[in-house]
Design brief:
Elements: H1 11-20, H2 27-37, E1 42-45, H3 52-64, E2 76-79, H4 83-96, E3 104-107, H5 113-122, E4 126-129, H6 131-139, E5 150-153, H7 156-161, H8 165-174, E6 180-185, H9 190-199, E7 204-207, E8 218-224, H10 233-248, E9 255-258, H11 262-274, E10 279-282, H12 288-300, E11 305-308, E12 323-326, H13 333-340, E13 350-356, H14 361-371, E14 377-378, H15 396-400, H16 407-420, H17 430-449, E15 468-469, E16 476-477
Parallel strand pairs: 1-6, 1-7, 2-4, 2-5, 3-4, 5-6, 8-13, 8-14, 9-11, 9-12, 10-11, 12-13
Antiparallel strand pairs: 15-16
Helix pairs in contact: 2-3, 3-4, 13-14
């Protein structure tokens, strides 16, 4: 096995590596460091957590050990997609360059411009920046990029996802054509390949793993989750998450919980705190000081659960992360690889568990197609919630009742009972009452005996004391009940001539 001492690195750099406890380089480091020391362009493709940061920091420090920077003209530039990754690269430089007199500046958002300008004015050997803040300083006239000797683009595929590609192209155009370019990415999208063909000159291509593959030391599982109701999805999903964390027990020393949306990050962190878990949130809307404070607490071990959006999926180097929980299946399959890459680093074992609801099954299929294997399913730690309460079965006594005794039959009899209470009105004459008794009463009596509604009389006359009905269809017209004047319901028959 090759060792760092065989890579022609500066003796002071080797001393810092030895003090850090490293002896053998990772495959990406062993492949990228030699051509980088020779001044060649490098295109490195490796999965996350394989040590890409050291593969460009170590040769940069060795090459920059001789020389001196001028005011406002940095000698090297490292571009990172997020503040957290830029801060981590700066920490790596502090570790490996502690015996070499090199100056550095970190240009990220959330920090005062004046403090950063003061560092640039004194001259820096290494400038570590996010694209937006770098261009802000350039447009203010506080920075010149014509002295760049080495330029590094880290996590280029994340740059593409975050929309930084136009900024990257502009920054390339501001640097000298003679620069050395070190380009690192976990995947090679067509847009990334176009940039490498445009701005890299005969690069040494180092690909140590298949594009977008997960480490073999990570045990992966997925829990299929179906909420009982759409409006209860969030609370029930958080309940499943708590059950999964509890199920891991002492094996879950610390974990990162990834959510797709910032609002879910806050809600999940608040819920875990409510139930007594040691948790905190981190996402792009928080102040930089708060984000760094949360990250430091997680690295030091005083914070057990870090609830994060994808802003923390890249570049977080916390070697001892035991678990990763995907509260949501990521929308981009590549993000799944970067998320679970936060565990199982440097040869350690890790575990990643994903919660998938029915509408995320397509995204899960895309993830499995990318990593080229099926993710084993886990049983839901909670019993599935019932969607509807079971209807009570009728008792034997109710089942034995005849149809006439059931509520439906009683309801049908209500109009007949209302018919018996005739409204008070003008007393009909003898001939009218006789004719009515001979004709109408016989039909009403037969209708009552048959248990039918008197509203269905073929004559179509209006029902007395009830609602009026339409002719021919037997339907009651709502709106005329017992409150109507009694004379409206009286029957006016034609008088017979003698």
């Amino acid at each position: 096995m090759i060792k760092f001492s065989e890579l022609n690195l500066n003796a002071k750099v080797l001393k810092a590596i030895d003090e850090a406890g490293y002896e053998s380089p990772t495959p990406i480091q062993a492949g990228a460091i030699p051509p980088a020391l020779e001044g060649k362009d490098v295109l490195g493709i490796a999965q996350t957590g394989t040590g890409k940061t050291a593969s460009f920091t170590l040769p940069m420090i060795t090459r920059l050990a001789r020389g001196r920077a001028r005011a406002r003209m940095p000698r090297s530039l490292v571009l990172c997609p997020t503040r957290e990754l830029a801060a981590q690269v700066a920490e790596n430089f502090d570790t490996y360059a502690q015996h070499v007199k090199l100056t550095k500046a970190l240009l990220i958002g959330g920090v005062s411009f004046k403090e950063q300008e003061a560092l640039i004015d004194r001259g820096v050997d290494v400038l570590i920046a996010t694209p937006g803040r770098l261009l802000d300083h350039f447009e203010r006239g506080k920075l010149l990029l014509t002295g760049i000797e080495i330029m590094v683009v880290d996590e280029a595929d994340r740059m593409l996802d975050m929309g930084f590609i136009p900024d990257i192209e502009r920054i390339f155009s501001l640097t000298p054509f003679t620069r050395q370019t070190l380009f690192f990415s976990a995947t090679m999208a067509p847009e990334i390949e176009r940039i490498t063909n445009t701005f890299l000159s005969a690069p040494a291509r180092i690909e140590v793993a298949r594009q977008a593959t997960a480490s073999e030391t990570i045990a992966q599982n997925v829990v299929m989750f179906k909420p009982s109701r759409r409006d209860r999805e969030g609370s029930e999903k958080r309940k499943v998450l708590r059950a999964l964390i509890d199920g891991e027990g002492d094996k879950c020393t610390n974990a990162i919980v990834f959510c797709n949306r910032k609002i879910d990050v806050d809600a999940t962190a608040k819920s875990l705190k409510k139930y007594g878990y040691n948790a905190a949130a981190i996402h792009g809307d928080l102040e930089q000081s708060q984000r760094m404070k949360t990250l430091d607490a997680f690295r030091e071990g005083t914070l057990r659960l870090l609830i994060a959006s994808d802003v923390a999926a890249r570049g977080l180097d916390v070697p001892s992360v035991s678990h990763v929980f995907n509260f949501d299946v990521p929308g981009h399959a590549e993000d799944y690889v970067h998320r679970i890459g936060r565990t199982g680093r440097a040869g350690r074992e890790g575990k990643a568990i994903t919660i998938c609801n029915p509408r995320d099954e397509k995204a899960l299929d895309a993830v499995e197609a990318l990593i080229q294997k099926a993710i084993p399913r886990l049983d839901n730690p909670l019993k599935p919630a019932k969607t509807e309460a079971a209807k009570p079965e009728p008792s034997k006594a109710e089942a034995a009742k005849p149809e006439s005794a059931k509520p439906e039959a009683a309801k049908d009899k209500e109009p007949v009972q209302a018919e018996e209470k005739k409204p008070r009105g003008r007393r009909a004459s003898g001939r009218d009452s006789g004719r009515d008794a001979g004709q109408d009463n016989s039909r009403q009596k037969s209708a009552r005996d048959a248990g039918q509604d008197n509203n269905r009389q073929p004559s179509g006359r209006s029902q007395r004391g009830g609602g009026r009905q339409d002719r021919g269809n037997g339907k009651t017209v709502v709106g005329m009940g017992d409150h109507m004047p009694s004379f409206i319901a009286l029957s006016f028959a034609e008088r017979r001539t003698s």
